[in-house]
Amino acid sequence: MGTWLRNKLRTLQDSEAKFKALFVLYATYEITYIVFGVSRINTFFNTSNLTFGVNLVVLIGLMILILTNRYTLEEFILISLGIAIGLYAFYALKLNVLFMCVMFMAAAKNIDINLFIRKDFKLRTFLVGSIIIANRFGLIPSVTGLREGTITIVRDSLGFGQYNITGALIMMCILEYLYLNFGKTPNYGYGLIAVVIVLMLVLTNSRGSMLAAILYSGASWLYQYKTEVFKRVVSQLQGYAKYVFGALTVISISVVAIFNYSTPFWQFVNRLTSDRVNILNQYLIKFGIPFLPQQVSDYRSAGIIVMDNIYVTLAIQYGIIVLVLFIIYYYLLCQQAVLKNNFALVIMAVTLMIFGMIESTFFIVGVNITVMMIFSNLNPIKQERLKE
């Protein structure tokens, strides 16, 4: 057994073999997450044992890959601390999201992100598209509901368990496509993206994810058609990208902390954010900000935890240490992407950080692939059009 394991570890030292192994593990996780975790297929039978078993196998595989990697002292400390707190979070919260995130992050050391994103785009688009098509043919049920406001909108989850999950998954398909084609997207590509965004706003009304898709589409278009102006602006601003996660953390927590529902200004802000600030303020008052992950109860006995802001969610539910770790992780990601002149990745990371102001799915690997790219090979993609 020991000889077999040593031989396997030597094989995984080869970068190509390691890449294939990691992507198989990631694909297994993503298929399980999308098909059995967040789609409405889980209404036909209890998928929890299946997802737990698959995730356990994936975690074992990731641990083997991690043992083949070499890390600097700083990387080793950041990864070890993340894994330790991820395990504690799994014990305290009964959630494996943080642990899975850090394990993929550690295993993806020096992985070619461009090839990885190319493969993930094809897999993700196929999975999400298949669920939506099955839903439209009546094979998978939807969640429907009303969003009341100036205009009452009927929301449809399109076969997934929650409207914003649908929006987030489709947003990531759009972002990956644009990343792979950054500055070389065909006009019909932009047209198709515009149609998808409008349809998602009409059907799911997932505004945060579609805002992110619009921002990244706009950045790609500006680079493509206003190249000199865009490069000049980005070259001046991209150095600040590494501070964005920390800045948005301060802004989010400050706004939630000083929120006062009795004043007209804050009532306006609360309406603008669909009651998010008020809900987050109640969570902050009730649970505070701990050092380590803590159990947080559901919102007004609704059966779900409603904290639609990743920065406040990390602070209240996962604690100061995890929040600081993510500030460091995204500092490093943006810093290295800038050094590699991969401004397409820098802009995607910033776009997703803005998305995190409105949604808390930011650090789920199955939604946001950049969380596993902190220690990867961040060389920019060659400026060639993705084969259509």
Automatic annotation (TrEMBL):
Organism (species): Levilactobacillus acidifarinae DSM 19394 = JCM 15949
Keywords recorded for this protein, A-Z: Membrane, Transmembrane, Transmembrane helix
Tagged with keyword Transmembrane: yes
Name this protein carries in UniProt: Cps1I protein
Entry's transmembrane regions: 21-38, 50-68, 75-91, 123-140, 160-180, 192-223, 243-261, 310-332, 344-375
Keyword Membrane annotated: yes
Signal peptide coordinates: none
Domain of life: Bacteria
